[in-house]
Design goal:
about 240 residues, Metallo-beta-lactamase, Chain A, 7 helices
């Protein structure tokens, strides 16, 4: 069977918008890319139930980077669904310490002070990943025909997942799940929050030469890679 991609959009606390989780189904089971924040766990499980994802058939939870809104349900899902968690080593400390600024540059001092109080993980939500991902890592050994693409910039350990698409209206070729490197709130663009903007632009430039049809961002709606390329023909995104 061709794989199916289900977008699960979960609201964030404090009216901060929403975040995307992607549930992918193939003949071997289910694979989840990012998990949302723990404030909306019941909605996530409701969407799992609709899709037929139950304990035993969720094979892998893949985390694109260590921020609270992408890792918040990972430990819970591992416990309930017996799924392994896969993540890039450079963001391990965020998940283990519940600190989204671990291994990041200084950033905004007020945000750094408030973030642990507003978005810090409960101890029960912290975890050490089971699988260490790196650039080029092949996930086919877990039943998922996909590869890892290192996309640092938003965080040091940010990754993308490249696999086959499933929505002909968006392009049936290669699909990229890009985490928070790119977003599509108003239009396809670099995420507005970057740990290292120069590195992020280099990651975005790398995408331009790959055969990717559809981009599934961490925030906003999926879009065609062609839209991003057309948007940045004179690209501030890669300059």
């Amino acid at each position: 069977m061709p794989q199916e991609i289900k977008t699960i959009r979960l609201l964030l606390p404090y009216k901060l918008g929403s975040v995307n989780c992607y549930l992918i189904k193939n003949e071997g089971g289910f694979f989840l890319i990012d998990t949302g924040f723990s404030n909306n766990r019941a909605e996530l499980e409701k969407e799992f139930a609709k899709a037929g994802c139950v304990p035993g058939n969720l094979k892998l939870v893949i985390i694109t980077h260590g921020d609270f809104d992408h890792t918040g349900n990972a430990a819970y899902l591992r416990g309930k669904f017996a799924a392994q968690i896969a993540m890039h080593f450079d963001d391990f400390g965020m998940a283990e310490r519940g600190d989204m600024f671990w291994n990041r540059g200084k950033g905004n001092s007020i945000l750094r002070m408030l973030a642990p109080m507003l978005f810090g993980f409960k101890k029960s939500d912290r975890f050490t990943p089971d699988i260490t991902l790196e650039d080029g890592y092949n996930l086919s050994g877990y039943g998922f025909d996909a590869k890892v693409l290192s996309l640092p910039g938003h965080s040091k350990g940010s990754i993308g997942i490249v696999t086959s698409g499933s929505d002909p209206s968006l392009g049936s070729g290669q699909a990229l799940f890009c985490g928070d490197l790119l977003g599509n709130i108003d239009k396809p663009a670099l995420n507005s929050i970057m740990d290292d903007l120069t590195v992020a632009k280099a990651s975005a430039k790398k995408l331009m030469s790959l055969e990717i049809d559809t981009v599934y961002p961490g925030h906003g709606t999926p879009f065609l890679m062609e839209q991003l390329i057309n948007e940045y023909q004179q690209p501030e995104i890669v300059s």
